[in-house]
Amino acid sequence: MRFNENRWEVELHIHLDGAFRPSTVYRYAEKKGIHVPGSNAEEFTSRLAITQPNSLSSFLQTFDYIISPIAGDKEAINQITLDFVEDCVTRGGHCYVEPRFSPHILTGGKLSAEEVTKTVLDALERGGANHDLQWRAILCMMRGNPEWSDDVVAIAKKFQPYGVVAVDVAGDDKPCDGTNTDPRIKEAFKKAKAGGLHCIAHAGENGPAASVTEAVHEMFAERIGHGYHILDDPAVYKDVRERNIHFEASFSPSNVCPLSSKLTGSVHGEWSSHPITRFEADKVNYSISTDDPTVTGQWMQAEKRMLAMQMVLEGEQFHMANLRAAEACFLGAEDKAASATSGVNHAALSAQQPPGRRAEEL
């Protein structure tokens, strides 16, 4: 892993379709006559950003405006992916990233999910080479569309040689009770594991702690997306800690997306009581991610400045969280080996000018 003095961030949980550059989305919307909020790109950008806590379902509704101008258009998908790579470097400070996406959501009724995947991977390859960004890709099944699950795994297996390393299940997990994930999703995870793919699951975000148990024990999840509600059940919390689940490398705790957790309504109360503070105190295997920077308005470096400003974490804690991300990522062993002895001092983050109004209001 190529850490350097200017770019050292490792991000494991970022949705490609939650990181589209708004100005590009607006340009394609105008070109195609698709109505989106705002009379220009700047206004559209501000209308997309959610600034107050709400529900996860409301948070996800914003994606209707983001997806429709891009879906089904190879040129647009290519451009939005190239933008993503550039923004990872210039706004996120990334040296490594694992973007995830649902290929079926981007078909737009005009492309196959396989065509979408190939277009994204080609753009990631070219963009990564141009910007010296290492990456691996994750394909998402969707809780609301379990009929896609087999196809997602088949596509992921086909494109393993070209950078796909894992499958995930995304979508609102609030209905999950720890037993009722659709059998088609569970069966697809079995096939993914048998085919040598890594497994991840969004769980314990809006759903109960039992949804994390289901993900780990029945869907082979090595990393958990979000997972805040494991704190509600001491037995589940003990189990995932003992398994060293990365809350997002073997059997994992969770990937933590601080601002999005507030905006989706998954986490309530003061920043001082955010689950990340408990994870840190208990030495849980967690890393920091942004989830959907188009909607939260924050890329990784701004996210960390916000946490520093809110006195949730400080310099060395950021450094260790980033190293845990490097250890939990799905790079091959040789590429990952360098990260074990490399590192950059993150202490300066806490001294940087924090972002403004949005962090202060939450």
TrEMBL record:
Subcellular locations according to the entry: Cell membrane
Biological process terms in GO annotation: adenosine catabolic process; hypoxanthine salvage; inosine biosynthetic process; negative regulation of adenosine receptor signaling pathway; purine ribonucleoside monophosphate biosynthetic process
InterPro entries: A/AMP_deam_AS, A_deaminase_dom, Ado/ade_deaminase, Metal_Hydrolase
UniProt keyword terms in alphabetical order: Hydrolase, Metal-binding, Zinc
Domain Adenosine deaminase per the UniProt entry, residue ranges: 10-338
Gene Ontology cellular component list: cytosol; external side of plasma membrane
Any one Gene Ontology molecular-function term assigned to this protein's record: metal ion binding
Pfam families with a match to the protein in the record: A_deaminase
Topology with respect to the bilayer: Peripheral membrane protein
Cofactor list: Zn(2+)
UniProt EC number: 3.5.4.4
Enzyme class at the top of the EC tree: hydrolase
SUPFAM superfamilies in the cross-refs: Metallo-dependent hydrolases
Primary location group: membrane
Family to which this protein belongs: Belongs to the metallo-dependent hydrolases superfamily. Adenosine and AMP deaminases family.
Protein's name in the database: Adenosine deaminase
Species for this entry: Echinococcus granulosus (Hydatid tapeworm)
